[in-house]
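[Discussion] Sanity-checking designs against the backbone

I'm trying to build intuition for which residues belong where. Below is a C-alpha cell string of 146 positions. I'd appreciate it if someone posts a full sequence so I can compare it with mine line by line.
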C-alpha cells in the first residue's frame, strides 16, 4: 500500500498582505483551525429530450459566479491584534495568500478578500479567542508547484 502525500497543520497558511508598496505577506499568529472554501453559484436549465418528448427532462447547469471564503479560529495573539483590526476596519479589500505546502510542492491562491466578520470572545478561566471570516473580492488565482 502506498501512503498518500499529505500536509500538516502548519503547512496550511493564511497570509495577509501589506497594503502599500510591494506586498509583503505574513501569517498572523493564533489560529488553531482554519479553512478555505471554494464555491460556485449555479443556474439550472431544463433540457428536454428532442427525440423522446416523454422521457424525463435532464438538468443542465451553468456557472453564474465563483467565490472563496476563509475562516479561522484560535487564540487572540497580541502580535496579531492590530493586523486583524486594521484588516477589518479597512473599507478596501486586502491582499491575501493561502498556501498548502506538501513535500512534493505547494498550492497557492492569491487575491483580495474582505474581513467579513471578526469575533473576539472569552470564557471564565480561559483565554481570549478569535473567530475570523473572510470573503473574496474578485478572483483568487491558483498556482501549483506540485
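Best answer:
Here's mine. Compare freely.
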Amino acid at each position: 500500500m502506498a501512503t498518500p502525500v499529505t500536509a500538516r497543520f502548519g503547512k496550511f497558511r493564511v497570509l495577509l498582505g501589506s497594503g502599500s508598496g510591494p506586498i509583503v505577506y505574513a501569517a498572523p499568529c493564533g489560529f488553531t483551525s482554519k479553512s478555505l472554501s471554494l464555491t460556485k453559484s449555479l443556474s439550472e436549465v431544463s433540457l428536454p429530450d428532442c427525440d423522446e418528448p416523454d422521457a424525463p427532462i435532464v438538468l443542465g447547469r451553468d456557472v453564474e459566479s465563483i467565490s472563496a471564503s476563509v475562516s479561522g479560529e484560535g487564540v487572540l495573539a497580541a502580535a496579531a491584534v492590530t493586523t486583524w483590526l486594521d484588516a477589518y476596519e479597512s473599507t478596501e479589500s486586502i491582499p491575501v495568500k493561502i498556501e498548502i505546502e506538501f513535500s512534493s510542492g505547494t498550492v497557492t491562491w492569491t487575491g483580495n478578500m474582505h474581513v467579513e466578520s471578526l469575533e473576539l470572545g472569552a470564557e471564565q478561566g480561559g483565554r481570549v479567542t478569535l473567530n475570523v471570516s473572510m470573503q473574496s473580492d474578485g478572483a483568487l488565482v491558483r498556482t501549483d508547484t506540485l
